[in-house]
Design goal:
Layout: E1 5-14, H1 18-30, E2 36-40, E3 57-58, H2 67-77, H3 84-104, E4 119-120, E5 130-131, H4 137-152, E6 155-158, E7 160-167, E8 173-180, E9 185-196, H5 217-224, E10 229-230, E11 235-242, H6 257-260, E12 264-266, H7 274-277, H8 287-302, E13 309-312, H9 318-324, H10 326-334, E14 344-353, E15 356-358, E16 370-372, E17 377-378, H11 389-409, H12 419-430, H13 441-455, E18 459-460, H14 462-479, H15 492-516, E19 525-526, H16 534-537, E20 539-547, E21 550-557
Parallel strand pairs: 1-2, 1-9, 2-6, 9-16, 15-17, 18-19
Antiparallel strand pairs: 3-5, 4-5, 7-8, 8-9, 10-15, 10-20, 11-14, 12-13, 13-14, 20-21
Bound molecules: flavin-adenine dinucleotide.
Length: 573
């Protein structure tokens, strides 16, 4: 029997991004006496992607805008695959969150000359509604939320990674197992309510933008616990990720506001190629359209030798570019480019997972006591997320999860659990800590990323997806033979192994779902099914593990509870 420490709390929040920290704040606001433990794999408030938000946050603040307009933009962007109630809640609550961030926590967003919050254009939107702080909005939001943690004082378990959900014999939440990364020790955290907010995963690709600690842990632990996930085939590629060879800067995003401000995309022949793909919206078309267009140019041999295209905003003048996009200019100068004065090489980069755990608008899942919020949840964005709706979602649903959790604690108690489930989670975690010949997790991760990029990437086909499926099966076998040093403290190889296990679980659900969707919709492009099939595919794909490694897929009709689908004539998907 392996040893572990037992901790107890009313509410366990997993993840300290926008969703996690607002969940803590709202739970404490509802009842300051509640015990809240915040488990964070990375530094509290400084890990995850909310801090990386550049462009901004969509919210209806102007009298000339309306919730209905924002809502329709969101549904059209999502190609009507969205859960309409989740999308409406996002739109309806977003202005309240902006006010809360400014008035209660002291966030300060850019202003117009007469003192109102300044909002800018983002692709796919019928109104300029993106609230921002320069081009580094996430740092402002997360810094203010981090300060609030010193006021409400949850117990912070930093550099602690959640491993597995432990359910009671009747299938409700009993707690979670965790690994203290600094010490290498194991914890069983018993909780009346668990909020999963680990930020999803889009990192299992060769070129990827998100924070590296986001490896699908929350979604994978939910899949292992038998929860249903939806839309897993919907992975957004941002059109403008930097290309910088083997550097970790490869994949880092140049924000969407650049295209909103008039940046051109040009291929290696100097052509503004968007005229071939969307002559009306050009560079301001939605991300899926632009990423696909760039990919097609590169595949057609009109890309750069490094496999990219160029973004060029230098026609606005150096001073203006520097004034409006100082963070982006600094980023390109770091790798020897200069956005302010010349074109910069970019490629589509894996950016955001629209798919995730099925929730309702109060963040309830099918497991009593288990709530999910932020990028770990699926449904709000449908087939494609609009820029600016990601941080809106994570903060709106973080607030809701916190309030729901506080109300649930009053109705729940600590539940019994099966000791063998805790032991099984620990045994599984410790598998690679053995000497002897075997694979290193780093090599396997590289193989996973290459396969996902080539076979389940911007443009997919049955042939490629089948190849990806067999690659994942082989990697799952090789995972069992990974061997790493048995030192427990800050063991990087051990963490890579645990990341890989989760990434493989999530990747499998993505590939299986992508094979099933025999059409092109939003971010899911099939070269063998290039058209959208509205007659048959206004349905979402639900993936679930059913035991002994087997999975089950079902198709469900989208419920058009508020708006019937309407596609622009000539719309590609
Ligand atoms: C470069 C970039 C730019 C972006 N710009 C924008 C933008 O301009 N506008 C917009 O709307 N959206 C943007 N997004 C998307 C946006 O960042 C996300 O939608 C949103 O912030 C996700 O919030 P979250 O709270 O769900 O997760 P995150 O903020 O990503 O937080 C996840 C947290 O979970 C923790 N964690 C992970 N695994 C575990 C584990 N096993 N146990 C415990 N903790 C764990 C991490 O350490 C982290 O604290 C951008 C994303 C990227 C990558």
């Amino acid at each position: 029997m392996s040893k572990y420490t037992v901790l107890t709390t009313d509410i366990a929040v997993l993840g300290s991004g926008g969703a996690g920290l607002l969940a803590v704040l709202h739970a404490k606001k509802a009842n300051p006496e509640l015990e809240v433990v915040l488990v964070s794999k990375g530094a509290v408030g400084r890990s995850g992607c909310t801090r990386m938000v550049q462009g901004g946050f969509n919210a209806v603040l102007s009298e000339d805008d309306s919730l209905e307009k924002h809502y329709i933009d969101t549904l059209k962007g999502g190609k009507f695959l969205n859960n309409q109630e989740l999308a409406w809640t996002l739109v309806e609550d977003a202005p309240k969150v902006i006010r809360e961030l400014e008035v209660e926590y002291g966030a300060f967003f850019d202003r117009t000359e007469d003192g109102r919050i300044k909002q800018k254009a983002f692709a796919g939107q019928s109104f300029d509604r993106t609230v921002h702080k320069g081009d580094l909005t996430g740092i402002e939001i997360m810094s203010r939320l981090r300060e609030q943690m010193f006021r409400v004082k949850p117990q912070e378990l930093e550099d602690v990674r959640a491993l597995d959900l432990i359910l009671s014999p009747n299938g409700e939440v009993a707690g979670i197992t965790c690994l203290d990364v600094r010490k290498g020790t194991l914890i069983f955290l018993r909780a009346k309510v668990v909020i999963v907010a680990t930020g999803g995963s889009a990192t299992m690709y060769r070129i990827a933008a998100p924070a590296r600690e986001k490896t699908g842990d929350g979604v994978a632990m939910c899949i292992r616990a038998g929860l249903e996930v939806r839309d897993m085939e919907m992975l957004q590629f941002h059109p403008t990720g930097l290309l910088a060879g083997e550097s970790r800067m490869t994949g880092a995003v140049l924000e969407e506001g650049l295209r909103g401000a008039g940046a051109y995309l040009v291929n290696a022949l100097g052509e503004r190629y968007m005229k071939r793909y969307d002559p009306v919206k050009m560079e301001r078309a939605t991300r899926d359209v632009v990423a696909r267009a760039s990919y097609m140019e590169i595949m057609a041999g009109r890309g750069t030798p490094q496999g990219g295209v160029f973004i060029d905003i230098s026609h606005l003048g150096e001073a203006e570019v520097l004034r409006r996009f100082p963070g982006m200019v600094a980023r390109t100068r770091l790798i020897g480019g200069d956005l302010a004065t010349r074109p910069v090489e970019v490629s589509p980069t894996s950016h955001y997972a629209m798919g995730g755990v099925i929730i309702d608008k109060d963040c309830f899942t099918s497991v009593p006591g288990l709530l999910v919020a932020g990028e770990d949840a699926g449904g709000a964005h449908g087939a494609n997320r609009l820029g600016g709706n990601g941080v809106a979602e994570s903060t709106v649903y973080g607030c809701r999860a916190g309030r729901t959790a506080a109300a649930e604690v009053a109705k729940r108690d600590f539940l019994p659990f099966n000791e063998e489930d805790v032991q099984a989670s620990i045994r599984k975690t410790e598998i690679p800590l053995k000497s002897g010949p075997g694979f290193t997790p780093f090599d396997l991760t590289r193989q996973l990323k290459d396969s996902m990029w080539e076979n389940c990437g911007v443009v997919r086909s049955a042939e490629g997806l089948n190849r990806a499926q067999s690659d994942i099966a082989a990697l799952n076998e090789e995972l069992k033979k990974v061997r790493i040093s048995s030192s427990r403290e800050f063991n990087v190889g051990w963490n890579e192994y645990l990341d890989l296990e989760n990434q493989l679980t999530v990747a499998e659900s993505m590939i299986d779902s992508a094979i099933i969707r025999t059409e092109t919709r939003g971010s899911h492009t099939r070269s063998d099914f290039p058209e959208s099939d509205h007659a048959n595919w206004l349905r979402y794909i639900v993936y679930k593990k059913v035991g002994s490694g087997k999975s089950e897929i079902s198709l469900r009709d989208v419920q058009f509870t508020r708006v019937k689908p309407e596609f622009d004539e000539g719309s590609e998907s």
